[in-house]
Amino acid sequence: MLGLFANIAGAQQTLIQNIQGRKILSLNGRWNYIIDPYEMGYYDYRHDPFDQSASGKGGFYDDRKGKDKTELIEYNFDLSPTLKVPADWNSQADKLEFYEGSIWYRQKFSISPQSGKKYLLYFGAVNYEAHVYLNGKKVGTHKGGFTPFHFDVSQMLNNGENTVVVKADNTRKQDEIPTINTDWWNYGGITRDVYVAELPETYIADYKIQLAKGDLKKIEGFVKLEGPARNQEVTISIPGAGISRTVRPGADGSASFSIPVKKLEYWSPTNPKLYDVSISSGGEKISDKIGFRSIEVRGQDILLNGKSVFLRGISIHDENPLIPGRLRSQGDMRMMLNWAKELNCNYVRLAHYPHNEEMVRLADEMGLLVWAEVPVYWTISWENKDTYQNAEKQLSDLIVRDKNRASVIVWSIGNETPLSEPRYRFMSSLAKHARSLDDTRLVSAALEVHRNDKEVIVNDSLAVNLDLVSFNEYGGWYWGGVPSNLSAYYFNIKYKKPVVITEFGADALAGFHGDENTRWTEEWQEAVYRNQVTFLKKIPGLRGTTPWILTDFRSPRRQHPLYQDFWNRKGLISEQGKKKKAFYELKKFYDEMELKYK
Ligand code: GCU
Question: How many CA atoms are closer than 13 Å to the CA of 382, on its beta-carbon side?
Fold first, then answer.
């Protein structure tokens, strides 16, 4: 089997920054598909991959039609149904709702490749393992369902009609990231945008333009060119701030810069100021919208632009509850973030994996701080080198993709990972890696608590390597009995750092009412929020919360026929968009915190 991220058509040098700012041909739309549970399109009956056979032929990627009626061909894309791209497959056909395995996608497109141009085939995300073919030839593979990837196909394009075929496989496996067990729906398919980008031979591959670490008076960053003339001049200009700087990259195409700033309007949730920024080199000019803010911790305070802030947050999955499936468009995403705004949030935890780039750009625009996370979730294969590589690569791609987003303030390296030495090493390496890529943001993880009678203890040594003490605790649902019992509990938190509660909450079936000691009622959930707020306020270093969760969401682990029916019901909003009583309990707390930290 090829290396983890190998591709035949030339390795993915640098994950391209700001694909939307390029000249792109969208391949979104309806793609023909073939369900392939036995991977007939990939392996021969000896289970040897066709694309590694001498001819490299034989798989569904050949897209054969059959020249005459004697020929035996047991698939046909033209006669096959279609799926929408970008979208998960589970929400598009009843027979695919629970489907886990391989599906082949095919799309045709026309293009006239120009000489002196470079062409990248770009995917926003494919869950989970993608094998990509162009005009019957293997382009490459990618693993990881939530981060972008692209291939250089400049030498593979036809002048005219082209055929791209993708085998997407969302089979869960122990050694992968995430591993086999998650509390979210394993939505499969080409879930985010697909483009062919046309670039100059030498192009601006990547750039970072942000305030220097903890410094409101200096913009620091780098640019990176790819291509033969990679040491040609590059100009960064921010007209709104009176900034224009020209740099000359070295032989490797990269150049860093540090620009003192006189006057700058800083980005914050109350003033989400985005500057028009352009980066130009040779004939190419890219525009972006970038906000400038500093984020740091000092003692038990979190300082945004030097001022202590309380993170009034909510956790969110990348799922539209009204039409179950991955969020499909900016409209869906804006709906979710507007609900967070109605809660008086200034912060969201995008759980448990990188969400769509558009969601993060929307948070920039709407003024919501973001906790971003990689799906190192529950019990991973801590001692498997490939598993670590995979996790580190997903973390790299997340940071590379979103490093210019002012809204993103925390890189989270995982959720509820069990204590052990191999886990400690794995997670500490990830924390170090995140800092090596970006030292201007906080690094953390959602830790777990353990209890000794009424004492709730946080002493996970991983916290030493993190900027926050952030943990999940489910008093009033998974422990503690009825909600009012919480008043008897108290915290013992070992580390003097800002405390951010990454999850607390309870399930409630919207519209099911009773007394607060009856599980599944809105009253139980409301009482959990009321008692949790009192409980959490006892923590001197409390600087934020992201209760679990904004809306009910699909989960294959939730099988109670009446109360759940494959929904996790911890949402403050139901799958019909109905606000539950607890919604208002949390809003009350946030209105109070807003005043306190004004
Ligand atoms: C966990 C986990 C979530 C899960 C939640 C729950 O803490 O992080 O992914 O959905 O608890 O049990 O509802």
Answer: 17
Instruction: Kindly give the residue spans of alpha helices, DSSP state H, lying in 294-420.
Output: 330-342, 357-366, 385-402
415 C-alpha to ligand 1 centroid (Å): 9
Residue among 342, 349, 350, 344 at smallest CA distance from 579: 342
Q: Which residue has the tokens 């060119």?
A: 225
Which residues have a Cβ under 8 Å from the Cβ of 210 and sit 6 or more positions away? 219, 220, 221, 290, 292, 403, 404, 406, 440
Sign of the C-alpha dihedral, residues 171, 43, 86, 121?
A: positive
Of 513, 506, 501, nearest to 549 by C-alpha is 506
Residue 182 Cα: closest atom of ligand 1: 9
> 183: CA distance to ligand 1 center in Å?
6
Q: Whose CA is nearest to atom 3 of ligand 1?
A: 183
Contact (CB, 8 A) for 78 and 32: yes
393 three-state secondary structure:
helix
382-391: buried (b, 16+ CB within 10 Å) or exposed (e) per residue?
beeeebbebb
**Ligand 1 pocket: which of 314, 503, 553 to mutate (most atoms <8 Å of CB)?**
503
Burial class (CB in 10 A: 0-12, 13-18, 19+), 66: exposed
For tokens 């991220």, name the residue. 5
- Residues lower than pLDDT 50 in the chain: 1-10
The structure tokens listed for 357 are 């780039």
Distance in angstroms (rounded) separating the CA atoms of residues 410 and 399? 10
Question: Does the C-beta of 548 come closer than 6 Å to ligand 1?
Answer: yes
Q: Of all protein residues, whose CA lies closest to atom 10 belonging to ligand 1?
A: 183
Q: Ligand 1 centre from 353 Cα, in Å? A: 13
> Which atom belonging to ligand 1 lies closest to the Cα atom of 570?
13
- Mean pLDDT of all residues belonging to the chain: 96
Across-strand partners of 276? Answer: 289
| DSSP assignment of 7-53 | -TT----SPPS-GGGSEEEE--EEEEEEE-TT-TTTB-TTS-BGGGS
User: Which residue is closest in CA terms to ligand 1's atom 7?
Assistant: 472
CA 131 to CA 465: how far, in whole Å?
37
pLDDT of residue 8: 45
Nearest to 313 by CA among 533, 545, 506, 548: 545
pTM of structure: 0.97
